[in-house]
């Protein structure tokens, strides 16, 4: 069969599939339009990273400079520190924050009282809806060296007041701890949905066989959660160089600059701030990070596929 004949056969199959399931394609159309308009069309602007972009000349009218801004970023004095700070902030956040939603979901699944279970779920979901600005203000209030409740407790126990937001060593614990408190409950939704889809007959059979609550968690809950947990881990690994820039910017002070100086804050201050407006430079840094994140997610996905036979693709 020739190549043209194969193409006609393939197009015929696609046409018949669309005619057979046209209702499903109509439902899918808005989502496809969304991704095309907001995800694929903007990729035209990626070339800004390779041009000396001037708004007056437009994208195509601006001078082509190639890898100039990539070289500028990698040769900058604080490039190594920014990469290290960004990676460590996300790595520690993933290390300490990823297991907590799974543990919360397992504990919530073990609750029998519907009212208390509903109250507990609502209580851990609420912090997710607190804005970043309000959360940063809460951190400044709670950890204030003069009026903060944390320092009052430290002094009451015989310790000395600590100026947490000025200490470089405390930036990551404050950032990661508040991130876990705010989002751990919300991230349990997917795991709770997985646990509620388990056939109740499995628990009944385990009870008849004399299984304890821990045995049920170990042999029923965890095996069902493992595939979705691995997939979420792979997705999270694709963000190891992407941080909550708004929060880091709000928590950054002159004292904690050594650990709070991450790439996102640098892009904002150097590339986007009105006083500098180096859009090409900011685009080059963003493109570089996206390529590295993509490489990481591909690497982790490949490792997961070989080790556990669980992968995204």
Spatial ordering of strands, largest sheet: 1-2
Total number of domains: 2
CATH class label of the largest domain: Mainly Alpha
Q: Under the CATH scheme, which architecture of the largest domain would be assigned?
A: Orthogonal Bundle
The CATH homologous superfamily of the largest domain:
MetI-like
Oligomer: single chain
Helix/strand structural class? mainly alpha
Number of distinct helices? 17
The residue ranges in which pLDDT falls below 50 over 5 or more consecutive positions are none
Spell out the helices and strands N to C: HHEHEHHHHHHHHHHHHHH
Give the end-to-end Cα distance, rounded to a whole number of Å.
30 Å
List keywords for this structure.
313 residues, mainly alpha, MetI-like fold, 2 domains, two-stranded antiparallel ribbon, 2 strands, flat
Task: Walk me through what this model shows.
This protein has two domains: 1-36; 68-129 and 175-307, MetI-like (MetI-like fold, Orthogonal Bundle). A two-stranded antiparallel sheet has the order 1-2. It has helices at residues 3-20, 22-40, 58-61, 68-74, 79-97, 99-109, 114-125, 132-142, 149-156, 168-183, 188-196, 200-208, 213-237, 245-251, 257-260, 263-272, 279-307, and strands spanning 51-54, 62-64. The chain is flat, with a radius of gyration of 25 Å. The two termini are 30 Å apart. It contains 17 helices and two strands. The relative contact order is 0.11. Helix 14 (245-251) packs across helix 16 (263-272). The chain is mostly helical and 313 residues long.
